[in-house]
Backbone:
């Protein structure tokens, strides 16, 4: 019998589907929205907070739960029982990104009453992400497909690295992963920026995203600013822009003065360590080094941010 697979975070769903296994997915998380064929599958998780609101409101809600030692999400036990997965793909990379690994293990043992393979992803670098493709492939008996996906991803990334050798400058890029409070993108983001011949000094590869101050951002004086709030699409980021524009120091940034501030769909690309991480690399390359890579940018993946509207 074909394996029944449950994917409890969006990047896991994308990996499984990229391996050609969409028809085996019997349950997804409440945030899984891509690829289109998974829409309508049973939803197995739920957020304990309202995901709507401003970034500062969401930050307060999340921090309140975490400080109390609580998970931000819950497993919908009745739906998990109905789904009866043989394989569950989850994560333990970020405590606020998906149901905790401990809760997944406890629920699967208590509710399913059978041996279930749990694959927990914990990527911090580009190589980790590609390695997860192979780990999911091994758990789902799709090693050949996973190997092809890794090879195709490395080939596209290598084209960026090769093209960057022609770069005439190394613009300083700031990647803002949260707006209130300000957070600088970490994990794989430094690699993606540096891959295209740009400069990134806000964190090192593999380091978690960190809170920064306005003093930090102004001292860095970025030539390019990429706004990529975690879990936000372009419309939600657009609603957050007043928090930046109303800060007197915003106008002092070289990127703002030179009209090189862009919102990027962080929910679809930058924050998902799955197959579309390669798309993310191409988007960053096109925005940071447009003379070399503008043709790589996907339509609808970004918006230019004007300084005063």
Residues:
């Amino acid at each position: 019998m074909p394996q029944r697979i449950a994917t409890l975070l969006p990047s896991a769903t994308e990996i499984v589907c990229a391996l050609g296994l969409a028809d085996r997915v019997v349950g997804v998380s409440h945030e899984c929205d891509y690829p289109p064929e998974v829409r309508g599958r049973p939803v197995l998780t739920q957020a304990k907070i309202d995901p709507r609101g401003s970034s500062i409101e969401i930050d307060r809600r999340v921090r309140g739960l975490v400080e109390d030692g609580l998970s931000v999400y819950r497993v919908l036990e009745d739906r998990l029982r109905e789904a009866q997965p043989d394989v569950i793909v989850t994560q333990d990379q970020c405590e606020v990104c998906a149901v905790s690994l401990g809760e997944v293990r406890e629920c699967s043992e208590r509710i399913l009453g059978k041996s279930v393979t749990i694959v927990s992803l914990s990527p911090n670098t580009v190589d980790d992400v590609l390695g997860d493709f192979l780990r999911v492939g091994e758990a789902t008996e799709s090693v050949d497909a996973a190997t092809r996906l890794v090879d195709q991803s490395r080939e596209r990334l290598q084209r960026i690295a090769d093209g960057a050798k022609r770069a005439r400058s190394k613009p300083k890029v700031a990647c803002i992963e949260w707006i209130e409070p300000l957070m600088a993108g970490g994990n794989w983001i430094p690699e993606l920026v540096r891959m295209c011949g740009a400069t990134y000094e806000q964190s090192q590869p593999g380091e978690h995203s960190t809170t920064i101050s306005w003093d930090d951002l102004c001292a860095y004086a970025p030539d390019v600013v990429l706004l990529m709030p975690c879990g936000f699409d372009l419309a939600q980021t657009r609603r957050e822009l007043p928090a930046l524009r109303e800060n007197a120091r915003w106008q002092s940034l070289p990127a703002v003065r030179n009209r090189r501030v862009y919102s990027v769909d962080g929910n679809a690309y930058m924050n998902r360590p799955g197959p579309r991480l390669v798309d993310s690399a191409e988007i960053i390359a096109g925005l940071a080094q447009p003379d070399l890579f503008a043709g790589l940018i996907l339509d609808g993946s970004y918006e230019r941010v004007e300084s005063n509207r």
